């Protein structure tokens, strides 16, 4: 039986898609089709789908907002499970609940929504999230950050689904966080998290959000299609500064271009493919290494041979 047939019946038909273009699900707007994509709304739907994929040995991967990934032009032979919601609703994978100084959020909540919701209830600590286009699940896995902070600093605990059917909650201190990384095992799916925040006057929190938003607007190509910063900042330096100093701004391969605004952003100017972006990334790495001796490490997750 085909993966689509195996999964139909487990999830409503309007949330199960065949040959779904991954370009539509990545902020960089590239990628071939996935054999099947499903969009579970609740933890029990997710559990059913993952258990079926596990038992029938269907390769699967979990996707949030696709804001830190570069899918391959060949797409994905298997099942993509997309966890991304809009309006928070109790019982869904994007529920959002304040409990005193804590906020409980499902994996599919967007970081800007999380930040604004914390601000509205007079809780500080998530202001840096307002300009990050990810969702809670993927952002925890990659320890998303900005403005000198990251999620590891405000996380209390993380809920994980470990296929085939184990649900566990671990303290954030056991997630192996470091700069733009977690030590979470690839087979564990983040289903939600609890954030521990600090009370503050909402207007103070809003003011910091405004400052961060203004900074990003000034320094980043926010309205272009990109996957955010392409490389991690190397110890003691900044990837954007090094790329700029190596004269890479404006380099272009096909529709992929190193942004003129910020050197660490590779933007899709329209019609870019993943192979354009990968060739450009290699060129940038080589130039920066030749000129500065620094080997840049990718921050964005690149799909290779069907693995993310
Ligand atoms: N710079 C240049 N040329 C450039 C870009 C930057 O000289 O083309 C210089 C700037 O002048 C500044 C320094 O590099 O002195 C740092 O630049 P910026 O303040 O923009 O910060 P960044 O280190 O490049 C980091 C995060 C961003 C985050 C911003 C704002 C990483 C890899 N990047 O960028 O995160 O939004 O700080 O806090 O850690 C992301 O993770 O996807 C991301 C975009």
What's this entry about, in short?
The chain is of the alpha+beta class and 308 residues long. It has seven helices and 19 strands.
Structure description:
- By secondary structure, the chain is an alpha+beta fold.
- Helices cover 25% and strands 26% of the residues.
- The chain is built from seven helices and 19 strands.
- The chain has a five-stranded antiparallel sheet. It has a four-stranded mixed sheet with strand order 1-2-5-3. Strands 15-18-17-16 form a four-stranded antiparallel sheet.
- The longest helix has 19 residues.
- The two termini are 25 Å apart.
- The structure holds uridine-diphosphate-2(N-acetylglucosaminyl) butyric acid.
How far do the termini sit from each other?
A: 25 Å
Largest sheet at a glance? 5 strands, antiparallel
Sum up the overall morphology in one term: globular
The low-confidence parts are none
N-to-C series of helices and strands: HEEHEEEEEHEHEEEEEEHEHEEEHE
Q: How do the strands line up in the largest sheet?
A: 6-7-13-11-12
| Mean of all residue-level pLDDT scores | 96
Strand coverage percent: 25-35%
Helix content: 25-40%
* Strand runs, count: 19
Q: What is the alpha-carbon Rg in Å?
A: 19 Å
How large is the count of helical segments?
Answer: 7
Q: SS-based structural class? A: alpha+beta
Bound molecule types: uridine-diphosphate-2(N-acetylglucosaminyl) butyric acid
């Amino acid at each position: 039986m085909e993966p689509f047939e195996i999964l139909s019946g487990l999830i409503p038909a309007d949330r199960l898609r065949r040959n779904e273009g991954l370009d539509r699900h990545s902020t960089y707007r590239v990628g071939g089709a996935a054999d099947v994509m499903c969009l579970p709304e609740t933890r029990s739907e997710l559990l059913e789908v993952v258990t079926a994929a596990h038992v029938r040995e269907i390769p699967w991967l979990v996707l949030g907002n696709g804001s830190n990934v570069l899918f391959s032009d060949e797409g994905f032979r298997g099942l993509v499970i997309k966890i991304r919601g809009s309006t928070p609703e109790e019982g869904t994978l994007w529920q959002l609940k304040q409990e005193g100084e804590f906020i409980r959020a499902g994996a599919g909540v967007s970081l800007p929504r999380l930040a604004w919701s914390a601000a509205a209830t007079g809780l500080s600590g998530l202001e840096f999230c307002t300009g990050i286009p990810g969702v809670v699940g993927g952002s925890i896995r990659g320890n998303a950050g900005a403005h000198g902070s990251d999620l590891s600093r405000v996380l209390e605990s993380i809920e994980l689904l470990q296929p085939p059917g184990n649900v566990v909650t671990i303290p954030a201190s056991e997630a192996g966080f470091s700069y733009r990384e977690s030590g979470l095992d690839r087979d564990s799916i983040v289903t939600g998290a609890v954030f521990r925040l600090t009370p503050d006057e909402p207007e103070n929190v809003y003011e910091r959000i405004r400052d961060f938003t203004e900074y990003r607007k000034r320094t980043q190509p926010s309205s272009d299609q990109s996957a955010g910063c392409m490389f991690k900042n190397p110890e003691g330096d900044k990837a954007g500064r090094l790329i700029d100093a190596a004269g890479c701004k404006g380099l272009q391969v096909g529709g992929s271009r190193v942004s003129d605004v910020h050197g660490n952003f590779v933007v899709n100017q329209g019609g870019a493919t993943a192979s354009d972006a990968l060739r450009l990334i290699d060129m940038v790495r080589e130039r920066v290494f030749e000129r500065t001796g620094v080997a840049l490490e990718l921050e964005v997750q690149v799909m290779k041979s069907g693995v993310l």
